[in-house]
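Translate sequence into structure tokens.
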Amino acid sequence: MIRKISFKVLIVAMIAMMSATDSFAQTRIRFQRGRSSATIRGTLAAGATRGFVLGARAGQTLTAVMSCGNGRCDFTQGDLHDTQYSHYVEYNGDVYISIDNHGNRSTNFTMTVSIQ
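Result follows.
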């Protein structure tokens, strides 16, 4: 009896860890050769946040725009909550952006990221 309960607790804990890991995972954005922009489409769960990362060089400007089916999604960079985002890159390396779904249902989103 105790073995059954322990096994069930272990399974529930593993599922919880996998869910948490997935919610903190970041998707790397890569531009096709010769391109300076990329469009990403996907689904964002209700109340979820999704992270993205891309490489940039100092002096470049990253811009991004997004839309979603429920109209309740935005970029969340510090105090910013908007469907448009712009960032001047000060150092070579990775730049992180994230989007949130503030709705109570999952929704499809489209995001276009460019770097100049």
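Note: The helical segments are 2-24.
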